[in-house]
C-alpha cells in the first residue's frame, strides 16, 4: 500500500532542470522585437525609477596637491523592465539570466565631478542580470577619479570630505528618477587604507531642471602616526636643538656653523611639507606656521650669534657701560669677574718669613682695613666684554626656550581643541 503511494507521489512531483536550449529560447523570445533605444516603461510619460547604490572596495589615492580623489567601487543599478518578464514554468523553471548590455537598454551614467574626463561608467563587455519578474540589475565597477576640495588647516590631523557624483547624462528628471535604498555606502568588499580611515558615509539625491543626480559622500580621517614621527616631532626637536647654540663655548668656533646647520635643516623640512600640500593660500596649514616660527627663530639665533661673537672678541680697552656691567653682574651671579680676583702670594713655608716681615704684615692688616675693603669694591666693579657676551647667551637661551615652548604648545592646543 505504502509503496503505491510513494510511486504516485514521485510521478506527480515536478522536477525542473534547465538546459542550454531553454536559455537560448528564453533569450530569443526576450530580444525578439526589443528596442534598446526605448526606455523600459509602458507609460512613456512616466520616469524610469533607478535604484542606485555604491559598494566601496578601496580608497586608492588621495592627492592633496592635485586635489584628486580615487576610489575603487561597484555601482549597483536596479530597475524594472516590463519587456523582460517571463513565466519560469515555460522554460523549465529558469527564473534568471544574464545578457550583454549591448543588446538591451541600460542607463548611461557619468561621473559629474570627474577629475580627468567625462565618460560613461561600465563597458560593452559587461552583462546585466534579469529576473522573471522584470527586475534588472546592472553592476559596473571601476576606479572613479574625482575632484575633491582639500582643507589642510589641521594637517596632518585633518579630515577630508569627498564625493562621487553620478548623473544620467542626456536624460531629464521627467525621464529618469533616481533614488537609493541605502542611506550609506556599502562596504561588502572594503579594504582598509594605510593612510586614511573612513569615518562616515552618506548618500544624497537631488534634481535640477535638466538632470537628476545621486551623490555618494565619503568622510575620512588621516592616520597621523607616520607624519607625527617623521615630521612633527623632528620639527619640535630641532627647535629645542637650536637653543643649544648658546651653550657652546665661544672659543670653540663652531657656533655659527651649528646655527646655520639647524637653520638649513628647518628650511628642508619646510620644503618637504610644502611639496605635500596644495599651493593655496586659503586655507593655510598650521604646520606651515609652526615651521615659519621655527625658521624665524633660527634666523634670529644666527643673527644674535654673530653679533654676540663680536661682543666676545671686543677689545678690553673699550670700557663696558656701567648699566651693562650692573646687569651682567646680576645675571651672571658675579661678585667679581672670573680671573680678576687678586690672590696674595704665600711662600711654601711660613718659616721663610722673618719675624720683622711678620710684624710688618700684621701691622699693615690691622692699620689699613678700610684700604683693603676699598680695593675689593674696586675689583668687584670690573666687568669685561666676555661677561657681557655670557649674559647675552643666558638671556637668549631663556628667550628661545620660551619661544619654542609657546609655539609648540599653541600648535598642540589648537590641534587638541579641534
TrEMBL record:
Residues 231-373 form the Neurotransmitter-gated ion-channel transmembrane domain. SUPFAM superfamilies: Neurotransmitter-gated ion-channel transmembrane pore, Nicotinic receptor ligand binding domain-like. InterPro entries: Neur_chan_lig-bd (IPR006202), Neur_chan_lig-bd_sf (IPR036734), Neur_channel (IPR006201), Neuro-gated_channel_TM_sf (IPR036719), Neuro_actylchol_rec (IPR038050), Neurotrans-gated_channel_TM (IPR006029), Neurotransmitter_ion_chnl_CS (IPR018000). It is a multi-pass membrane protein. Residues 1-17 form the signal peptide. Keywords: Ion channel, Ion transport, Membrane, Signal, Transmembrane, Transmembrane helix, Transport. The keyword Ribosomal protein does not apply. One of its GO terms (biological process) is monoatomic ion transmembrane transport. Residues 24-224 form the Neurotransmitter-gated ion-channel ligand-binding domain. It is found in: Membrane. One of its GO terms (cellular component) is membrane. The chain crosses the membrane at residues 226-249, 256-274, 286-309, 395-416. Belongs to the ligand-gated ion channel (TC 1.A.9) family. PANTHER family: NEUROTRANSMITTER GATED ION CHANNEL (PTHR18945). This is Uncharacterized protein. It comes from Sinanodonta woodiana.
Amino acid at each position: 500500500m505504502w509503496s503505491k503511494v510513494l510511486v504516485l507521489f514521485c510521478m506527480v512531483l515536478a522536477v525542473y532542470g534547465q538546459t542550454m536550449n531553454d536559455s537560448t529560447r528564453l533569450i530569443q523570445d526576450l530580444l525578439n522585437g526589443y528596442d534598446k533605444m526605448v526606455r523600459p516603461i509602458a507609460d512613456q510619460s512616466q520616469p524610469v525609477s533607478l535604484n542606485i547604490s555604491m559598494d566601496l572596495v578601496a580608497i586608492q589615492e588621495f592627492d592633496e596637491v592635485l586635489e584628486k580623489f580615487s576610489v575603487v567601487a561597484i555601482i549597483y543599478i536596479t530597475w524594472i523592465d516590463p519587456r523582460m518578464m517571463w513565466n519560469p514554468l515555460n522554460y523549465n523553471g529558469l527564473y534568471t539570466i544574464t545578457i550583454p548590455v549591448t543588446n538591451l537598454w541600460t542607463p548611461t551614467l557619468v561621473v559629474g565631478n570627474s577629475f580627468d574626463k567625462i565618460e560613461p561608467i561600465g563597458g560593452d563587455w559587461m552583462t546585466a542580470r534579469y529576473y522573471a519578474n522584470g527586475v534588472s540589475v546592472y553592476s559596473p565597477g571601476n576606479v572613479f577619479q574625482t575632484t575633491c576640495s582639500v582643507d589642510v588647516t589641521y594637517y596632518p590631523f585633518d579630515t577630508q570630505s569627498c564625493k562621487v557624483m553620478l548623473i544620467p547624462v542626456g536624460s531629464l528628471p521627467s525621464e529618469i528618477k533616481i533614488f537609493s535604498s541605502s542611506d550609506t555606502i556599502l562596504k561588502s568588499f572594503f579594504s582598509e587604507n594605510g593612510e586614511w580611515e573612513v569615518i562616515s558615509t552618506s548618500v544624497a539625491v537631488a534634481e535640477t531642471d535638466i538632470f537628476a543626480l545621486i551623490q555618494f559622500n565619503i568622510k575620512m580621517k588621516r592616520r597621523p602616526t607616520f607624519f607625527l614621527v617623521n615630521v612633527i616631532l623632528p620639527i619640535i626637536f630641532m627647535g629645542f636643538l637650536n637653543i643649544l647654540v648658546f651653550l657652546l663655548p665661544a672659543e670653540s668656533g663652531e657656533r655659527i656653523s651649528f646655527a646655520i646647520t639647524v637653520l638649513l635643516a628647518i628650511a628642508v623640512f619646510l620644503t618637504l611639507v610644502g611639496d605635500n600640500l596644495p599651493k593655496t593660500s586659503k586655507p593655510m596649514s598650521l604646520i606651515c606656521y609652526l615651521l615659519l616660527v621655527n625658521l624665524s627663530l633660527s634666523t634670529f639665533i644666527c643673527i644674535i650669534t654673530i653679533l654676540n661673537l663680536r661682543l666676545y672678541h671686543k677689545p678690553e680697552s673699550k670700557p663696558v657701560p656701567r648699566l651693562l656691567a650692573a646687569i651682567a653682574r646680576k645675571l651672571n651671579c658675579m661678585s667679581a669677574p672670573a680671573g680678576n680676583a687678586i690672590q696674595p702670594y704665600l711662600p711654601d713655608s711660613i718659616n721663610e718669613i722673618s719675624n720683622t716681615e711678620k710684624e710688618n704684615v700684621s701691622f699693615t692688616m690691622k692699620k689699613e682695613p678700610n684700604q683693603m675693603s676699598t680695593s675689593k669694591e674696586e675689583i668687584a666693579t670690573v666687568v669685561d666684554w666676555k661677561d657681557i657676551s655670557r649674559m647675552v647667551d643666558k638671556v637668549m637661551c631663556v628667550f628661545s626656550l620660551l619661544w619654542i615652548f609657546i609655539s609648540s604648545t599653541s600648535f598642540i592646543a589648537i590641534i587638541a581643541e579641534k
